Amino acid sequence: MNQRVLDNRYELQELIGGGGMADVYKARDVLLDRTVAVKILHEQFKRDTEFIQKFHREAQAAAKLSHPNIVNIYDVGVMGDDHYIVMEYVPGSTLKDQIKQEGHLSVADALHVARDIASALAHAHANNLVHCDIKPHNILMMPDGSAKVADFGIARAVTESTMTYTGNVVGSVHYFSPEQAKGTMITPRSDVYALGVVMYEMLTGQLPFTGETPVSIAMKHLQEQPRSVRQLEPSIPPVVEAIVARAMQKDANMRPSSSELVQDISQAQQMLGGFNAGAGAVDPYATQVLPRMQEPVRPVRQERYREPDYEEDGDEEKSIFKSKKFIAGLVMVLLMGFFVGAFMSFGKFWSTAEVEVPDVTGKQMTLAKQILEDKRLRVKVDEEFSADVPAGMVISQNPEAGAKVKEERLVTIKVSKGGENIEMPDVRGLKKADAIAKIEKMGLKVGRVSERTSDEEEAGTVIASDPRAGTRVTKGETVDLVISKGKKAKKSSGVPDVTGLPLESAQKALTSAGFKVGSVERKASKQAAGTVISQSPGGGAEALEGESIHLVVAEAGKVEDEDKGSKNKKKDSGKQETAAPKPDEAAKSR
């Protein structure tokens, strides 16, 4: 790279990483003669004045943090259009790299790393700073096995400024807290939830929630419970399982604070005995639960079903299901269900307050939900594929914008999952109309159609497509086609006269004129051996381009033999004349 120096102090040496917000360079601090890491914001952030202000404010606040498990921030500056932050340079890999390499960490190592991260969060939270983007990619691993948290303050500035940049939700949706996915207030306990997800991944090598789209994953954070870590790894002690489950509570108030989490992890390490980062297997039968933790709510045990008593009435028995009381109760239940459904759909019957439904079409899902909920409306999210609307954006809403509804009315928003991925069909060899029909039936669009000659495909059939057959494409994507014009039309022209030329020269003359040399016949001739005696078609005749021209060439040694044959014929004819009888002799003989 070209050598760059920021503010005559930070000499950029090499690009060592990058992400959604910035590029990271290894650099040398010329003033203090030390290696540092310099993070320079991406172009799209530079034009946002509000974000830049928050970035500098949050980065300066993060620079005040001093903790062994936090990457130190040395300086924040701007040079020209480049807004940068100078940090401690930490050689080595990230926690994400380690999980990929090892599959998952041992319980001892996972607890050690989690305690380091929780300690860093506790220090930051005590200084009123929330990270907002805790994930293994932002955890740097030291050679001694300890962990350092990077990017404090930067993610916070982004989240406060806006929920999206270029249509993408800030942060990683796999580690989102429910309140982040919902677009509501982010608190220090949002970081605790993310750390719970990181612990889940460290212990099992798997993420608690996955899906085809960011929207579907965000909805799982809001609505679903993950499989417990012990279901995936039975060797994990129950006390560790409880820590992860408590950190990942949907309700932020049910989660521990970061400082409480440090205590929980430390107690778990003591319970498991003799903890150190390099320890071997821990006691898989440790079943103690931390005092502060609550036992999971167990379902109330119900009485076993007993057969109803029947009253004898002659030979018949009356079923309770046919009694008037049962039927009346059933009607009441149905009526209650109707009214509950009506309330859920249309809001509070007793409320006279009406609100106007805001327009959220075209907005990112979390932002749309926040706008609707701020109007005291409830939200239901449906997903569908859309080639025209980017993933995560609202396609439509019901009720529509501008409608007057009661508070707590349910508003359904349809959110795009992006275009559906399909395999590009093979349309080569099909007629143009058939190819277009097949492409459109697959949910694709026909774009540019061009033509070119082909010796293999007849006119009107498809020669090629772009994208090619077999590649993965998105429904709604445009497909370009190339159609055969048939074989290239041949032109007629005059055949050059090559008689009298040596064979090699004649061949060159014919091919240069666009003809082929056909059969070559050898014949005796008085002409020099190897020269063309005649040709067919003859010189000057009209012939199609590429047509074959047949040649007759003089054969060596045949001219002399032909002359001797002529002389012998003359001698034989002379002898015959001498031997003929004279007229007088013929008469005497008679």
TrEMBL record:
Enzyme kind, highest EC tier: transferase
EC nos: 2.7.11.1
Keyword Protease included in the entry's annotation: no
Residue ranges of domain PASTA in the record: 351-417, 418-485, 489-555
Binding site for ATP: 39
Region listing for Disordered, in residue ranges: 522-542, 554-590
Residue ranges of coiled coil: none
Keywords for this protein: ATP-binding, Kinase, Membrane, Nucleotide-binding, Serine/threonine-protein kinase, Transferase, Transmembrane, Transmembrane helix
Domain of life of the source: Bacteria
Record GO terms (molecular function): ATP binding; protein serine/threonine kinase activity
A UniProt-annotated Pfam family: Pkinase
Parts of the chain that traverse the membrane: 326-346
Ranges annotated as biased composition (Basic and acidic residues): 557-575
Ranges for domain Protein kinase: 10-272
Catalytic activity: L-threonyl-[protein] + ATP = O-phospho-L-threonyl-[protein] + ADP + H(+); L-seryl-[protein] + ATP = O-phospho-L-seryl-[protein] + ADP + H(+)
NCBIfam families assigned to the protein according to its UniProt record, in alphabetical order: PknB_PASTA_kin
Name under which the protein is recorded: non-specific serine/threonine protein kinase
Originating species: Selenomonas ruminantium
